[in-house]
Design goal:
This protein is mainly alpha-helical. Helices cover about 80% and strands about 0% of the residues. The radius of gyration is 18 Å and the shape is globular. About 35% of the residues are buried.
Amino acid sequence: MTVLQALLAFSVAAGLLTLTPGLDTALVLRAAAVEGPKRAGLAAIGIGGGCLVWGAAAALGLAALLQASALAFNLLKWAGAAYLVWLGIGMLLKPRDRFEVGAADATGAGALAWLRKGFLTNLLNPKVGVFYVSFLPQFLPKGVAPAPFIFLLAGLHVLMGLVWFAVLIAATRPIARMLKTPAVVRWLDRATGVVFLGFGARLALERR
C-alpha cells in the first residue's frame, strides 16, 4: 500500500466513523443548543486537542514497539484486530435505535470552560487511545516512519471531526432531529460495523 492509497483508505474509513454519533457529537450539540455556537466551537476544539494527545501517544508507543520487538507489535496488532471485530459484530447485531442528544444546563462559567470540558472528555476516555492503537496501524505503508505518519492520520481524523462539528453547530436543530431518527442511527451503526469488521480482518491478516 502506497502513502496515497493509505491516506485515501483512511479518509474513507475515518470519514464514516466521524459521522457516526457518539459522546463527542452529543457534547457539541448540547453546547450549541444551550450555550451558542461560540462555546460549541470551543468544545469541538477541546475534543480535537484531546484526540491529538491520544494520537501522539499512540504514534510514539507504536513506533517504540516497532523498533523494540516485532513479536510485541504483532501481539498488539492481533489484539487490535480482535477489538475492531468485536466492535463491528456488536454494531451489526445490536445497532442503536436512537441517539439521545440530551440536555445541558447553562453553566454560567466562562467560555473556556467548554474548551476544557471538550478536552477532558476525550483525554480522560481510554477508549479513544485503545481505538487509535487498534485502528491507525493498518494504514501504515511499508518503509514509512511510523510515528510521524500515525500522528498525521490522527491529525486528519481531528480535522474531519472539526469540519463535521462545524456542520453540526451550523445546523444544530435539523441534524439533532436527523440523529434521533431510528433508521438513520441504525444505518450508521451497521455501516460502521462493516468498516470495523473489514479493517479488523485486514489488520489480522496483514504481514509486515
